[in-house]
Amino acid sequence: MTAGIDAPASTPPEPAAPAPDPRARTAPGRASATRTSQTGIALRSAGRSLAGSARSLAAGLHRAGRAVGGFAAPVTGVISPVGWLVLAAGVVALALAWPLGWIELAFVGATLLAALLVAVPFVFGRMAYRVGIELQPRRVVAGERALGRLVVRNVGDGTSVPSQLELPVGSGLAEFVIPAIPAGGEHEELFAVPTQRRAVIVAGPAASVRGDQLGLIRREVRWTDPVELFVHPVTARLKPSAAGLVRDLEGEVTKTITDNDISFHALRAYEPGDALRNVHWRTSARTGRLMVRQYEETRRSQLLLVQPTSAEHYASEEEFELAVSVLASLGVQVIRDATRLAVATDRLRLGTATPTALLDDTCRIAPLEDAAAPVRDVVREAGRRIPAPSVLVVVGGSRAPLAEFRAAETVFGSDTQVIVFRTEVGAASRIARVGESTIVTVGSLDELSRLVRRVRP
Which residue stretches belong to region Disordered (predicted)? Predict the structure, then answer.
């Protein structure tokens, strides 16, 4: 028997390698993306932190700068712009003299700084003044003369030193040299105020000035408050009740029918809910059915005076001033007639308590350089806080289209009568009827009284 050869033991088959997971292949990329995202978040957080720190530092520096500036203001405030320029030039000249080796620059820098130092003693010293400003009169018509009086009184114990006093008057500046004034004494200066045009002229505040002759250092002390001078527009004198255009004593009758008023209108059949006090018993007995009274609604006269002030509506400055004069003339007479009145422009609502209050406010009317607002919008805004007027008067310029004035008819109801005064310097004055509006062309203020008398609303 042949020896058998042992057969090698059969080895089990090796397990198959698992299929690669696609998610496992992308894991390193995702980890990298996660790390990048975390890095971005960290960088953004650090950036926000740095930005917040920078803002806090800037705010702190700003507060510190304001504190230092406020502390140094009594010193730095007396240095004029010319003085700051001289100081900067001196410092720059000295800073460049050493590296460049120019003795001339050093000399220039030293001279400029010395000039600034020499000017310092001129600002020292105190003055014990009591200053007053008087304007006579406080209200004038354009073209009339107005005078001002400046009174300086020394309330100190000793004689004052000579000084300089500056007084702004409108757009100008009046300068007065005040001599030495003994204790308890006073000095006065007279000055004229230009009043050729309608305006509110502000005089003051009066300020004493101390400083050097070169103007490097300047110290001002204010002694008064501003004082206003009202230069009223030229107005035309109108006859009583001519400008009111509504001459009723108890009220103006409207087209609105009501069940309770004083102006009897008609009778109608009784309806449930009617008040028995309105039953007309004699007619009811004759007709055999209840009849009640109807009335026309009455109301107190209310006039609305409006002036659109856009510069586009006026051919010249003289035309604008003529329109203001027409507005003031009509408004003053309506106030004297004791008719309820509201006056407004694009941006200004004028006082109507007294003629003086109205004239004072007309001094503040100025042409608007902005884009022209529609006349209808100006009228609507002016009538927003008042009852519907019985008469609407619009004062405008020759360049405003007639269609814009006619559009104002739609703001209020049919009970409101619209009258337009168009100013056109040098034009022939006339009255025309356009739609439901009365158009009055005013060529000069002298003709206004005659035109108003001819207006029939």
Answer: 1-38
